[in-house]
Amino acid sequence: MEAAAVAPAAKKRKPDRIDGQDPPGNHDGDEILDLISHLPDEVLCTIVSLLHTKDGARTQAVARRWRPLWRSAPLNLQVDDRLSGQDHKRFRIVSKILADHPGPALRLSLRGIRLRNPYAKINGWLHSPTLNGLQELEFVCGMEEHGLLPYRLPRSVFCFAPTLHVAKICYCQFPNEMAASLNFPCLEQLTLAGVTLSEDVLHSLLSACPVLQSLLLDGNIGIGRLRIISKTLRSISVGGPWDRQTAVGFEELVIQDAPSLERLLPRNPDYGPAKIRVVRAPKLEILGLLPEGICKVEPVTRVFQETIALSLTTSMQTVKVLALVSVGPNLDLVVDFLKCFPCLEQLYISSDLKNFMRNKRAYNALDPIECLERHLRKVVVKKYHGMRPDVDFAKFFVLNAKVLKKMEFDVCVSFNAKWMANQHRRLQLDNRASKGAEFNFETGNGRYYPSSMYTHSLLKVNPFNLWNTYWDEANM
């Protein structure tokens, strides 16, 4: 009998994996290494907590090792159409999540909630032990089915006041009787949009936030005058009610004492505030869009200029970025503003063109404008048409901004090489005051409001560099 020596086939070594891990297979049927699962549990839990609720729960099916992570991770509970398109199913899912997840809770987002029928159930959710220690709350009410009256905000929302760091409340009536007893010792970001409340209640609410850093107020009803006194606020964005026929319009914003304020961003010049007074804001660097009323209504302009005169040495000299709305554009009014901001480095102008405007103002070398002489390095002209009023307006900066580095034109009309050559001649670019300046023409979309995301992002970012971003996730 012939003995056949057959060498055993070498076994292909499978990659190492964590005990209990079920790695997926590749197209050849071989197992591949799951590198993500090698991360520590703390990192994986952080990843899971940043996902939408539905996606976070689905991670339990990734592998055996992932199964306990969702319940170990801080809960991010987002109650919206993505969780389920059916109201009754969505409510059933949320109740199950709160029963199964032990907490702690990081974030609760309730969007488009109609409170008439599910009021009791939502109150039950808010009192769930799973939500103890909640840090972020988003509560966006729906409107009543018959009429436009907003729902009343549930009092149980305020059980999270001691631990909240971020709060966003929209489209509701604020329970005024709660204001005096509120205290938000940890709250750093506050958004109120489409909320009905009185001035006294708002001031009481703000005084209950001792560490507040960013504030967004937009479309709220019942606020005619707002006075800001805060040692910690760094960024403020404000706008009046969206319905101009409302009984109380947003007439005046007073920055009384805000030693940490860096950015003041009116939301939309069309809705107010009509007047802005800056009494003390020694770190203010970014200002605008300034309301159109300040540019064209003489009494408001005088109020603004008087305030600047009183605080020029402490406040307005710090402003480096300014954004204005100018009808016309009106060169005389814009130049008057430039005199009030001597250290201005970047200027953004959005103009509603009026053919009757005549911008023939000559620069007086005996009465120099400090920012034009020493500091202004960038000018952006939005909604540029290339007609005589905006050509003469822009030419003033071409011929007089001594240290200009870049001038950008956001053009509202179609243009070609011939149009560009004509603009080059009419703007007298060959005679520019700053020989190293660049001039760029780009097609624009006419939008000019900065994204509200920059209200709460405290990074050193100029919101007007990206002010094509008008409507974002922070706009409900």
Strand content: 15-25%
Quote the distance from N terminus to C terminus: 87 Å
Relative helix content: 10-25%
Low-confidence parts lasting 5 or more residues at pLDDT below 50?
A: 1-32, 295-315, 468-476
Broad shape: elongated
Number of helical regions: 13
> Quick one: biggest sheet?
15 strands, parallel
Average pLDDT rating: 81
Radius of gyration: 29 Å
- As an assembly, this protein is single chain
How many extended strands?
18
Return the structural class: alpha/beta
Report on this model:
This is FBD domain-containing protein. Residues 16-29 have a biased composition (Basic and acidic residues). InterPro entries: F-box-like_dom_sf, F-box_AtFBL13-like, F-box_dom, F-box_dom-containing, FBD, LRR_dom_sf, LRR_FXL15/At3g58940/PEG3-like. Residues 1-29 are annotated as: Disordered. Residues 370-442 form the FBD domain. The chain is α/β, with parallel strands linked by helices. The protein has a domain at 320-444. It has 13 helices and 18 strands. It has helices at residues 41-50, 53-58, 69-72, 87-100, 119-126, 199-207, 292-296, 298-311, 331-340, 370-375, 388-400, 417-426, 453-456; strands at 75-79, 105-113, 136-141, 151-152, 166-173, 189-196, 214-218, 225-229, 235-238, 252-257, 263-266, 275-278, 286-290, 321-328, 346-353, 378-384, 406-411, 438-443. The strands form 2 sheets. The protein has a 15-stranded parallel sheet that branches. Strand 16 (378-384), helix 11 (388-400) and strand 17 (406-411) form a beta-alpha-beta unit. The longest helix is centred in the first third of the chain and has 14 residues, at 87-100. It is elongated and about 75 Å long. It starts with 40 loop residues before the first helix and ends in a 20-residue tail after the last helix.
